[in-house]
Design brief:
GO terms for molecular function: glutaminase activity. The chain is of the alpha+beta class. 46% of the residues lie in helices and 11% in strands. The strands form two sheets. It has a five-stranded antiparallel β-sheet with strand order 2-1-8-7-6. Strands 3-5-4 form a three-stranded antiparallel β-sheet. The protein binds glutamine.
């Protein structure tokens, strides 16, 4: 069997298993603009480390990256320095991604960079490092996705700006503890806009190759060290799906990062980047069909990190 056939067979088998579940779950209507997305969409894309793409379903429709961006702001920050680990821990929180309660008694140091408070700290750092966090992130994602025109969907960003009081609370609380250094309103503006960057499923699979190749960019140059890649993927596995990270490790066994736009990025280190998109979410904010597709993938291929 050729490589081409092997990958197409995997995709067919994954799609067959996931089809009855497409449309399940609830779209993230706490951000009103995301509540308008059709839950019956579904896409699956597999990128090999050599850059070949195999895909099925709605893989060319742009969707909101949301929390998946947290991986790449982190990658940008750790490419410069490891100092961020003074400002954010790397333990699973066991709590919802926007929970406030740990943050008060842990004195403004978030549990990890892949929940909202942690990501706000990382965005604050990127803003200090570059002067333009969302612009720097958009440049990186544009280069890696193969689409030079990736953009912030300003309507979605504004929709979250209008309803984002919980993120505001997190940011002001951390500012009170001295763990936000730029003006809070500026950090929030960059955070809401970074979350609203849109990509297609195929573009996301390409972006994920940065991790699958352990820090090597699409143009062959190195962005961050192998060690940094290993650490980012460890945090992804243990914290990337919030209070469902244990469940994801149990069912899928790959580093995964979800977003409330319905995307999930998973990595088979040194082999594949996998992107799935299904806007219907479970109560913890992870795509129902997306998780099932990734579980089908590891069941079928036996490719997991365990
Ligand atoms: N889990 C997510 O994707 C959350 C991102 C979203 N922008 C929020 O802050 O609530």
């Amino acid at each position: 069997m050729s490589q081409e056939e092997y990958h197409e067979n995997i995709l067919d088998a994954v799609m067959e298993r996931v089809r009855p579940h497409i449309g399940k779950g609830h779209v993230a209507d706490y951000i009103p603009e995301l509540g308008k997305v059709d839950p019956h969409r579904f896409g699956f894309a597999l990128a090999t480390v050599d850059g070949d793409i195999h895909s099925a379903g709605d893989v060319d429709i742009p969707f909101s990256l949301q929390s998946i961006t947290k991986l790449f702001t982190l990658a940008l920050v750790v490419s410069g320095s490891d100092d961020i680990w003074q400002r954010v821990h790397r333990e699973p929180s066991g709590s919802p991604f926007n929970s406030l309660y740990q943050l008060e008694f842990e004195r403004g140091i978030p549990r990890n960079p892949l929940i909202n408070p942690g990501a706000l700290v990382v965005t604050d750092q990127l803003l200090s490092d570059t002067g333009d966090a969302v612009g720097t992130l958009c440049d990186l994602l544009s280069r890696e996705s193969g689409n030079p025109h990736l953009q912030v969907d300003e309507v979605t960003a504004h929709s979250e700006y209008l309803t984002g009081d919980r993120n505001r609370s997190l940011a002001y609380l951390m500012s009170d503890f001295g763990n936000i250094r730029n003006p809070v309103s500026e950090v929030l503006d960059h955070y809401f806009r970074q979350c609203a960057i849109t990509v297609t499923t195929v573009e996301l699979a390409r972006i994920g190759l940065l991790l699958a190749r352990h820090g090597v960019r699409a143009d062959g140059s190195r962005m961050f060290s192998r060690e940094a890649a290993r650490r980012i993927m460890a945090v992804m596995l243990t914290c990337g799906t919030y209070d469902a990270a244990g469940e994801f490790a149990f069912r899928i066994g790959l580093p995964c990062k979800s977003g409330v736009g319905g995307g999930i990025l998973a990595v088979v280190p040194a082999r594949y980047s996998l992107a799935v998109w299904g806007p219907g979410l479970d109560p913890r904010g992870n795509s129902v069909a997306g998780a099932l597709a990734l579980e089908a993938f590891t069941d079928i291929t036996h490719l997991s990190v365990f």
